[in-house]
């Protein structure tokens, strides 16, 4: 493990790694780590599964890696059998070495720049990530500015450790069905009478790797998105983002040394809707010099005991 940076409140401790702007640990009142983590010297497979990373600049899957924009088509490198670009392909933000611009006891500021054309996307892009802890809440603020229109949908990708009796509530009445490549079909379907109805707390279906439609546009301030209840803690997620990708962790690696295995953690990723660049009816993920990208996501943690 390289150099890490720790921020603290009176209740929360968060440890960050500039490699991928990775959340290595989050603990409440000195308790156990709530996110899955392992030293890369033991296994790099959790890193390859984006564990704890900031992903983007265009999170989730893009069909064929193609991005139509203003009469041109941009090609992102595909990293899933040549079929999709997942989390911006092999050179996404999860592979970046972020710069620590500032730190104090309770806050940390990362920065990163992407040159025009990097990852197949247009624009010189400046990205800022502010992480701060106050009492029982970790807040992430992410901005991306650009000199030309470009897609931006950035997500934080921790796996929250769960217990077998966990319950998950998601404040969404619709979700996006997917095809056999895990891409949205374009349909926006009701969650009612499906395994994806989490309007009341229930265990996540092991086949879940879907976007839940929280809103039809990014909001100005965070709204309640999801609640995860485990034997040890209760996690409340609020975000400005219009979508929440929920992934059951069914294909997590086996890493016995870190007590990591399939279904040991759940990814809950506030973000734009996947493949929105190829689905005009989805909320737009295009930002411009006059309308930069901005996200705020809050994680509030309670002890379950």
Spell out the blueprint of helices and strands.
Layout (H helix, E strand, L loop, with lengths): L4 E4 L3 E6 L4 E7 L16 H4 L4 E3 L5 E3 L2 E4 L2 E4 L8 E3 L12 E5 L3 E8 L10 E10 L2 E10 L3 E2 L3 E3 L1 E3 L5 E4 L3 E2 L13 E2 L18 E5 L9 E7 L3 E7 L3 E5 L17 E7 L14 E2 L5 E11 L2
Antiparallel strand pairs: 1-2, 2-3, 4-14, 5-8, 6-7, 9-10, 10-11, 11-12, 12-25, 13-24, 15-23, 16-20, 17-18, 19-22, 20-21, 21-25, 22-23
Characteristics:
four-stranded antiparallel β-sheet, 25 strands, mainly beta, 305 residues
Short description:
The protein is an all-beta fold and 305 residues long. 1% of the residues lie in helices and 42% in strands. It is built from 1 helix and 25 strands.
| Largest sheet data | 8 strands, antiparallel
What is the helical fraction, as a range of percent? under 10%
List the secondary-structure elements in sequence, H or E.
Answer: EEEHEEEEEEEEEEEEEEEEEEEEEE
Oligomeric assembly? single chain
- Strand-residue proportion: 35-45%
Report the count of strand segments.
25
CA radius of gyration: 18 Å
Distance between the termini: 32 Å
Number of DSSP helical runs? 1
Taken from the alpha-carbon principal axes, the silhouette is: globular
